[in-house]
Design a protein that fits this description.
It is built from 13 helices and 22 strands. The chain is of the alpha+beta class and 476 residues long. The protein has 3 domains: 158 residues, FAD/NAD(P)-binding domain, CATH 3.50.50; 155 residues, 2-Layer Sandwich (D-Amino Acid Oxidase, Chain A, domain 2); 82 residues, BFD-like [2Fe-2S]-binding domain (Arc Repressor Mutant, subunit A, Orthogonal Bundle), CATH 1.10.10.1100. Strands 1, 2, 9, 10, 11, 12, 19 and 20 form an 8-stranded mixed beta sheet that branches. Strands 13, 15, 16, 17 and 18 form a 5-stranded antiparallel beta sheet that branches. Strands 6-7-5-14 form a 4-stranded mixed beta sheet. The radius of gyration is 22 Å and the shape is globular. The mean pLDDT is 95.
């Protein structure tokens, strides 16, 4: 059966999720589709998790304007949704005189962009703001509005809000064909599922160029740029209070030291062009490069604190974002080349695309009963022992600790599964189980057992992140 929608959004990363939630406020039938087993499993799951400060790019660029607008929207989003976010501030550290001249340019750009509270800092001021900095710092820049966010939890909350307000989510939906038939697009997935939609939005991330080709729209090429990251344990002495940036280069914003919102420390990313968009390998050589760069800013960083590494691939397409209605085919919106500061800009991208859809003919009628809020899931690590004891009296699952490193209970694993997260990675991103020092060494078996019990899946079907990633083979 071919279902019909007003809008189909291709790609359930941070942009697709924001667009879906924004459209859920109107009397529309909206489909959000993704080729992965869960939302945020593409570009959105592996980035720096930073809400940027608005000083890195000139306002002549669309991405700078959307970054500034999007950054201001996070406080309200946090109040409405269930994701971790903190405005801890950003410092840019200058270690040489020529870097101070570059900082002056960043400051002037920040002032021109209207960044609230941006400040040029002396050495003393920098060390006061961030005592973990190297004594070699000559000065720098401070942007108090910058912050940190858990990107996958942000996407999960956006999608949950959208689906609670009527958006239909389809995962493992790999688009292979699109044809304009009358006033609608006819879309088909690799497994034969079909749908019709009057309007379509391309949020394909690394594969937006392929989505555009399938629709017969503009021809362009998305290039992958790999960024490797290393994660330090919560017990590290090197955790700063604010996000620490080096002075940026022409290629990237540089390798950062990020105090993540959940207590670990993130180092990276590197920036290297890759031909294979699936190349998520990390290397010893890059680790040494990252450590060397990070220690120039925060000397206490120790390799013994590293608990894991990962890589993210950024979709690059020229200097700016490409967000526009297609000039080649009707009722098709391009949202492509969304690299840094895409996470920060994403709430504003949702507004921008909503307005583009209206311009090309989508009629928007507000829902009287739209509910922006998502119920907050209790998390043991955020509760006092008295609060946890009260919860455990109602649900014994809160008394069973599954992940000791991150203090995650069985009830939280069950809640993740019941909200649709049925892979190990989906549960990890929703609960943080498997993210601690042991990286799942003690809790994975327990999670497998709970997954089997709650879903009825046999052990042979349980996957790390979806198709092609099953964990167990052969006879037990």
């Amino acid at each position: 059966m071919e279902e019909s929608f007003d809008v189909a959004i291709i790609g359930a990363g941070v942009c697709g999720a924001n667009i879906a939630r924004r459209l859920s406020a109107y009397e529309l039938d909206v489909a959000l589709v993704d080729k992965e087993a869960d939302v945020s499993f593409g570009v959105s799951k592996a980035n720096s998790g930073i809400v940027h400060g608005g000083f890195h790019h000139n306002r002549k660029l669309l991405k700078a304007r959307l970054e500034i607008q999007g950054a201001m929207m996070f406080d309200r989003l946090k109040a409405e949704l269930d994701f971790p976010f903190v405005r801890c501030g950003i410092v840019v550290v200058a270690l040489h005189e020529d870097e101070m001249r570059a900082v002056e340019q960043l400051y002037a750009q920040g002032v021109e962009n209207g960044v609230i509270g941006v400040e040029m800092c002396s050495r003393e001021r920098m060390l006061d703001l961030e005592p973990k900095l190297s004594g070699d710092a000559l000065g720098g820049l401070y942007a108090p509005g910058g912050g940190i966010v858990e990107p996958y939890r942000f996407v999960f909350s956006l999608v949950e809000s959208a689906t609670r307000n009527g958006v239909r989510l389809y995962t493992d939906w790999d688009l292979v064909s699109a044809a304009r038939e009358g006033e609608a697009w006819s879309l088909r997935a690799a497994d034969g599922r079909k749908m019709r939609a009057r309007f379509a939005v391309n949020c394909g991330g690394l594969f937006a160029d392929e989505i555009s080709r399938i629709f017969g729209a503009e021809a362009y090429s998305i290039k992958g740029r790999k960024g490797e990251y290393y994660l330090l344990d919560k017990l590290t002495r090197a955790r700063p209070d604010r996000v620490v940036f080096p002075v940026p280069t022409s290629l990237s914003k540089g390798m950062l030291v990020v105090p993540t919102v959940e207590g670990t420390v993130l180092l990276g990313p590197t920036a290297s062009a890759v031909e294979d968009k699936g190349d998520s390998a990390t290397t010893r050589e890059r680790l040494e490069t990252i450590l060397r760069s990070a220690r120039t800013m925060v000397p206490d960083i120790s390799e013994t604190d590293v608990i894991t590494s990962f890589a993210g691939i950024r979709p690059t397409l020229g200097e700016d974002f490409y967000i526009d209605a297609s000039a080649k085919v009707p009722a098709f919106i391009q949202v492509a080349g969304i690299q840094s500061p895409g996470l920060t800009a994403s709430p504003a991208i949702g507004e921008y695309v909503k307005d583009l859809l209206k311009k090309v003919g989508l009629v928007l009628v507000e829902k009287a009963d739209w509910d922006p809020a998502v119920p907050k899931a209790p998390r043991a690590r955020d509760l006092s022992l008295f609060e946890l004891d009260a919860l455990a009296a109602e649900d014994g699952g809160y008394g069973e600790v599954v992940c000791r490193c991150e203090r995650v209970t069985e009830a939280e694993i069950v809640a993740a599964i019941r909200r649709g997260h049925r892979t190990l990675d989906g549960i990890k991103y929703f609960t943080r189980a498997q993210m601690g020092r042991c990286q799942g060494g003690f809790c994975t078996y327990k999670i497998l057992k709970i997954l089997m019990r709650e879903t009825g899946m046999p052990w042979s079907e349980i996957a790390k992140h979806g198709r092609g990633s099953t964990l167990l083979r052969g006879e037990l």
